[in-house]
Write a structure and sequence with these properties.
four-stranded antiparallel β-sheet, mainly beta
């Protein structure tokens, strides 16, 4: 039985819904459908709009200035707010044909931390050739981690310079401490790992600094205690494949969850947008200075 606090926010049937965030500039939800080559918006009156793009948008994030930063498969661009113009600012892994850009978050210093993803169709033999990067406000690119297969789960705690990161196929969510300029990234001993509830995809932080994980192929989302690493809350969803999650609404007390539509399963619940009443609040979306 699905939890009563879960509702369908939008029947959008995304192929790969991802990169959702609540934009404090216009009080609305934005997210991508990567394979659909679309960006979606749900405003505070529950009206939806989608924008067709020239390529797959792997992430979308808001700027202090007008518009967005968008991660296309092999480059990052700045767009206007109407998503009609795109200016390339950085190429990414052009020499590695198997990878594309994937998960990303604005960091507390106004840059963007993002990772890549080995999308080789031979899933069983995918090699860890992807990487994690930081794009600073001056558009310089720094490598943070390597030997990754599928970058996901990026989130930043409000305290102690803590960053979360997951390499999805490993099932592990790791914690790192970063220096003020991101020149040093130290792996901490805490590793969150749970069997039988899918794999970690997108992540976010609530106002108590606990970590929420979308469990792709696990039909649920979970809240993980920041100190003990134990599961504080598990919420079942109609979809088998939740992908990303973020707190939104006027009081940041609604947890929105995107999902993907598996090609091998005919499930009308997969690919839709869901909203969850958790009784908790999130933290306001940071704006990047790029």
């Amino acid at each position: 039985m699905i939890s009563p606090e879960v509702q369908t926010a939008l029947k959008c049937q995304n192929l790969i819904g991802e990169s959702c965030f609540w934009d404090p500039r216009d009080n609305s939800l934005w997210w991508t459908d990567i394979e659909g080559k679309k960006i979606w918006n749900l405003d505070n009156k529950n009206q939806s709009t989608f924008f067709n793009l020239p390529d797959r948008a792997c992430f979308i994030l808001p700027r202090e200035n007008d518009g967005f930063v968008i991660g296309f498969p092999k480059h990052i661009s700045i767009s206007n707010h109407n998503l009609t113009s795109f200016k390339k600012i950085c190429d990414v892994e052009k020499e590695i044909k198997e990878t594309r850009i994937n998960d990303a978050k604005v960091d507390p210093l106004g840059g963007i931390v993002f990772g890549t993803y080995n999308e080789s169709p031979d899933k069983r033999n995918r090699k860890p050739i992807a990487n994690l990067y930081r794009l600073s406000p001056d558009c310089s690119l720094t490598s943070l981690l390597n030997n990754i297969t599928v970058s996901n789960g990026i989130a930043f705690s409000q305290k102690k310079n803590i960053m979360y990161f997951a390499d999805t196929p490993t099932g592990k969510i790791r914690k790192f401490q970063y220096s003020d300029n991101f020149k040093e990234l130290k792996a901490l001993d805490s590793i969150f790992y749970f069997e039988g509830i899918g794999e970690p995809d997108g992540g976010t932080i609530d106002s108590d600094n606990n970590y929420w994980s979308a469990r792709v192929r696990g039909k649920c989302i979970i809240c993980i205690d920041k100190e003990s690493g134990s599961i504080l809350k598990k919420i079942k969803l109609p979809t088998e494949t939740p992908t990303c999650l973020t707190f939104g609404g006027s009081d940041l007390n609604i947890l929105y969850v995107t999902s993907l539509k598996s090609k091998s399963i005919n499930n009308n619940f997969d690919g839709n947008l869901y909203k969850v009443e958790t009784g908790l609040k999130g933290i306001e979306q940071m704006l990047c200075k790029i």
